[in-house]
Each structure stands twice: as C-alpha cells, then as structure tokens.
Give the backbone structure.
Amino acid sequence: MTRKIIHIDMDAFYASIEQRDNPALRGRPVVVGGSPEKRGVVSAASYEARKFGIHSAMPTKRAVALCRNLTVIRPDFIKYKDVSGKLYSFYSEYTDLIEPLALDEAYLDVTKNKKNISTATEIAVRLKEKIRNELSLTASAGVAPNKLIAKIASDWKKPDGLFVVKPHQVQDFVKNLDIRKIWGVGKVTERKLLSMGISKCSDLYIYDKNEITDLFGKLGEVLFYFSRGIDDRPVVSHRKAKSAGAEITFETDYSDMEIIKSALFKQAERVSGKLKMENLAGKTVTLKVKYSDFTQITRSMSVSNSTNNLNEIYLICEKLLIEKTEAGVRRIRLIGLSVGNFDENENSQELFDS
Ligand SMILES: [Mg+2]
C-alpha cells in the first residue's frame, strides 16, 4: 500500500521566532546561540546571517567574526518549546503518527488521516497556512510516499516551500539526485563515490546489491535501496522513555577532533530537542564512543540540576570526550550520547545561560 508522508521543517526556526517577536531584527543577520566569550555555539541562523556563511553548530565567536553586524540572541527554549507544542497540536488534528526529529521538524504519516482528506498535499498546504496565520512563521514541507524522499523534498524549495513527489514520480526524481542528498552519505562516502564516477543516484544502478555491499559495507544496502527511492522505514510516534539518546555511525573512522565534535554537537542537538519536546530533563549525561576496533565505552557525568539545555549537554559530552576517552588518538566509528535520570517533577527548570 502506498503511504502518504509529510516531512515538515520550520524555516530557521529559533531565529525566525526571535525576528517575529522583535521587528527590529527582521531582515537582519541574527543568530540564536551561546555567548562568543564562553565557547558558545550557534543553534540557529537567520537567512540573512547564512549569506555570510554562518550556520548552526558553528562557534558563535567565528560567526561574529564572519559578520560584524550580527545580532547574537540567547536561546529562549521555553518559548521555542511552546511554539513546538503548538505545531504538534496542529499536526495531531490530522494524524497521531507524528515522529518529531527536533523541535522544528517532524514526519507525519497521513495515509489515514482524521479528516479523511484524500491528498497529503492538501494537508501540507493547510498546515503551512495554519502555521503562517496562527504563529506568523513559515514552514517548508515535503510530500512523498516515504520518509527519505519527503525529507529531501522539504529542503527543495526552502524557505516557505512545498514540494510534492508523487509515487509515480519517485523514480524520476531520485535518479537525477546528487548522491550526497541520500541519507547516510557523508563527505567521505561522497568522495569515494565520486572517485568511482558516481555523482547521481542513477550512476549507482549499474551495480547490483552485492557489489555495492562489498564496496560500502552496511551502508551499501542503504545506498542500493535509497538511490532507487525505496525506503520502508515507518513513521514512529514518540513514546515515553527512560532516557533520550542519539548516535551516529560514521561511514569511515575518524580521529579528527573537529569532525568528531561537530558530529557530537549534532547528536546533542537531537537529544536536547527530544527532551524539550517531551518536557523532560535529566541529571545524567552519558557519552558513548565506539572505536574503530568495535570496542565500545560509555562515560557518564551527573549534574545537580536536571538539564535539557543543548549547550550544557554538549559541553559535558565534550569534556567527557576529551578527558575520559582516547578520541583523537584512536579512531572512532560511532559517537553518541544520552540523557537520563529524569526529574520526578517533569516541569524542570531550563538553564538559559550558555
Ligand atoms: Mg528547520
């Protein structure tokens, strides 16, 4: 049965909220992030700031160096979480199959929807309208028969975009795609593919599944199916958990600390987002590292006040990484983290200072 999946992604979410709430910031380069003096990082950059090469996960100090007129705003996660909760309620008017990826990003499976609307496109249009009218924000949506294509599609016409890939269009859409658009293809894999003369998905079609798996290991199978636009991953709605975690397996093993830290930051961002979405905060942060020889270690640290603050979680992990692991000396194939030991009282204090 053909599914109807929407990937909806708010445009420059935190920065857009700040620009919405302070007209003086509109049309100006703005980032939301930590202090440049305290090793803060950029959580979100307005489109005006992006023109200067500024992006999220970049040290705020560097962002300020790139753009002299940059306004740096401390994150107000209570506000963002509140907006995110409203988004969630809009989505749930149509479906309960909502899989949040972050505060500003979610997959919806609207194959069966509560309003019996026949097309996912119609639902995406209505959601974008509602977000604009009620929240004065813009979202981009991708509509497709699976998560892979829906996520690529939501990025296609950003900002304020809507891009629809109908089931019969998937093959045509995917065959001309740059291979790096495929989930799981990082810089190293892309380089390897390019060296083989593969830049588009269709360039992979001459290899059968065994050949690709021989060349790329486990990722090969993903490449085989995803390059053909085939993705059966279900939309999994969120459940109450004891901890929230995220991890990434690199396609090659790294010892470069900048690459490792940047990957760690992205995972911390996912974890922090999940916690905020669920209104949870925890006292124990656990870093997980798998070395190239597959030995795996975890290192934990507990704090006295529960947290779901991105910078705080990241800095704890970074400290653990530097002091309690052999990162930089031994190569790493996987990095991840989790936050657990949740508060009894779910309404935890947010720590603003970053
Ligand atoms: Mg976004």
Summary: Residues 345-354 have pLDDT under 50 and may be disordered. The domain at 244-342 is CATH 3.30.1490.100 (Dna Ligase; domain 1). The first strand starts at residue 5 and ends at 10. The first helix runs from residue 13 to 21.
